[in-house]
Amino acid sequence: xxxxxxxxxxxxxxxxxxxxxxxxxxxxxxxxxxxxxxxxxxxxxxxxxxxxxxxxxxxxxxxxxxxxxxxxxxxxxxxxxxxxxxxxxxxxxxxxxxxxxxxxxxxxxxxxxxxxxxxxxxxxxxxxxxxxxxxxxxxxxxxxxxxxxxxxxxxxxxxxxxxxxxxxxxxxxxxxxxxxxxxxxxxxxxxxxxxxxxxxxxxxxxxxxxxxxxxxxxxxxxxxxxxxxxxxxxxxxxxxxxxxxxxxxxxxxxxxxxxxxxxxxxxxxxxxxxxxxxxxxxxxxxxxxxxxxxxxxxxxxxxxxxxxxxxxxxxxxxxxxxxxxxxxxxxxx
Length: 333
What we know:
The chain has helices spanning 30-43, 58-70, 101-115, 134-146, 160-169, 190-197, 218-223, 239-259, 263-272, 290-295, 303-312, 325-328; strands at residues 3-6, 9-12, 16-17, 47-49, 78-83, 85-88, 91-97, 120-125, 150-156, 174-178, 200-204, 278-280. It is an alpha/beta fold. The chain has one domain: NADP-dependent oxidoreductase domain (TIM Barrel), CATH 3.20.20.100. It has an eight-stranded parallel beta sheet. The longest helix has 21 residues, at 239-259.
């Protein structure tokens, strides 16, 4: 098993992203999700990722129920959550950002209650507040560390400059950003900075929001309700972009068939080779996908196959932005 250090604990490189258990990817089922969480733990997963904005607190509440099921075994895992984004009541996709000192403290207390724990292992700034100096936000988080309410501090979707400023106030344990074969923005500047500072990277959407599994069809998205599956709103999943990107996935599937893996395993294995301190958190609501994702950390790819995937998914080959421009304005600042 491929174990790596995160927030002071040695955990498998493949963790579980829990967002889809509460919203964004179609219908949800709490009982099914709790069974999936337990199955993941039994399988060896030890890194579970949530946020206070997923389902407006519902996802943390779900993880809190799971923490109760685990009892003393909770100490085996890295429980990660995030704060800083709250939702416009009139539009679930309008994100409002607050990184002020008072909000940091209030958000943490609320998360601790929902998660049913005394301490959060890894607490992320979900998005940087452009109206609050990152130093103020980090100082508040440092106080939470001193108070024993969080163990480690993380950042999400920030620039290299913000990372360096934050790290100067208090060590940043991890950066969480979207990273996959078809989202490689951080390779040029951010990865070198992470290596220099000794910061772990947690890659969310490592399977391109399910696209890289090869199981998603245009018909599924066209039939889905955009209010329950936000992928229908993303440029890469629309029209000609979808068709062009599917050609890349078909090539990925062909290579995975030749090697005896699934496309998802190939995509995750490639990603884990990019940085020694990288963790992936593919999300799923169903037990059937847990085993394949977890096994990806033991897949060995040759230099030739890694180079082949690099070339196939060169950034210019992917069609469409990863988010609409309005959302991109709030990332990597």
